[in-house]
Design a protein that fits this description.
66% helix; 14 helices; mainly alpha; 375 residues; 6% strand
């Protein structure tokens, strides 16, 4: 790529630029989005799974922490007892841990998709440069991070005050409740407060996500010279040129094959060459070559023609002459008018015989091909 020439980066990133940046792990990410997804998932998970986990842990402590005297003085029994307790505890919290693991992957996928890059994980000495570090602090990104931190503090503090004022009577009423009733009551209040506080941070996400997308796009913008250099580099590669040529040939063959069923006749070699002709009687011009090919392409033209009911005429000298003398969608040269007229006359005789149920005509075999077209 070209060196920095002082040009302003006004051009949108090319597909290659976007692909290269993704390989390097440079994709749009929002830590605020990941944090809020984790918090909300955790809050919802605790609300739905918390009772089962708490009840299970309560029974676990009753069953596993009440040991007989003989068990306490038996080292193997104590270790086995401990292993069972840990296993049971992990099984109880496993659904919640799995839920949080899924949330940890879902958050980044929401923005930028899945990407793993070893290059982005490698240490970079430039990140230890204190001058560049100060530059990052006082840059636009640093100011945005400061603004987000203040916004989070204001939102959480404001939501806490509102929740406290709204539920103050519930908290004060806990003193008059029994222990068995107060514990689930306070747990429900805490979980609800946690969920609402986490939801208050959605506003931060609504600000951060558009900024991260804009900032990422801005970083990948290119100068006009960079775009020109990339186009030269890409188009100059032999593999790219070969790919472009193959795509062009494939597209041309696709369009050519679409014209085969519309042809009036297909002149064949009969196996190595095939040329499809179309004659517009009302247009006043000469017959045109709408498709041609050799070997496998010729076989495909013949198969398409037969499936579409196009008449095939075996005329090796004429097929070779048409193939080499006429390009696609061109009218045949004047020297081949007579030979092609013989073929078309035979095609029209075949069509009439089929309609009238008459005897099929004999295909012509003697064609006059001028020497300049003979192959």
């Amino acid at each position: 790529m070209a060196e920095d020439t002082g040009q302003e980066k006004t051009e949108e990133p090319t597909a290659k630029k976007l692909e290269d940046s993704r390989k390097k792990g440079q994709i749009a990410r929002s830590r605020e989005l990941n944090t809020v997804v984790m918090l909300l998932t955790g809050a919802v998970g605790v609300m739905f799974l918390g009772d089962n986990i708490a009840e299970g842990l309560w029974h676990l402590m009753e069953s596993q922490f009440s040991l007989e005297r003989a068990t306490i003085f038996n080292e193997r029994a104590v270790v086995s007892h401990f292993d069972n307790a840990v296993t049971d505890a992990l099984m109880m919290v496993a659904p919640f841990l799995m839920l949080m693991l899924v949330a940890a992957f879902v958050g980044p996928i929401f923005m930028g998709g899945w990407s793993f890059s070893a290059e982005s994980m490698s240490p970079k000495l430039e990140k230890l440069d204190p001058i560049k570090g100060l530059g990052r602090i006082f840059a636009v990104r640093g100011l945005v991070e400061l603004a987000k931190a203040l916004l989070k503090f204001i939102l959480v503090a404001g939501a806490t005050i509102l929740l406290f004022n709204y539920y103050i009577n519930d908290f004060l009423g806990l003193t008059g409740e029994g222990l068995e009733k107060a514990i689930p009551h306070v747990t429900g209040l805490v979980m609800l407060a946690f969920l609402l506080l986490s939801a208050s941070l959605i506003l931060v996400v609504a600000v951060d996500v558009p900024f991260q997308l804009w900032d990422h796009k801005k970083k990948l913008k290119m100068t006009l010279q960079e775009v020109k250099d990339e186009m030269k580099e890409t188009d100059g590669r032999p593999e790219v040129k070969s790919k472009i040529r193959s795509m062009q040939i494939e597209m041309a063959q696709g369009r050519m094959m679409e014209e085969v069923p519309k042809a009036d006749v297909i002149v064949t070699n009969p196996t190595h060459y095939a040329v499809a002709l179309k004659y517009d009687q009302d247009g006043g011009g000469a017959p045109r070559v709408v498709a041609k090919g050799t070997e496998l392409v010729a076989a495909q033209i013949r198969n398409l023609g037969m499936n579409a009911g196009v008449t095939l005429v075996a005329a090796p000298p004429l097929a070779r002459a048409l193939y080499y003398s006429t390009k696609l969608d061109q009218e045949i040269p004047g020297g081949l008018y007579l030979a092609v007229a013989q073929v078309l006359a035979y095609v029209y005789q075949v069509e009439s015989a089929i309609k009238l149920g008459a005897e099929m005509p004999t295909a012509p075999t003697d064609f006059e091909i001028p020497e300049e077209y003979a192959r």
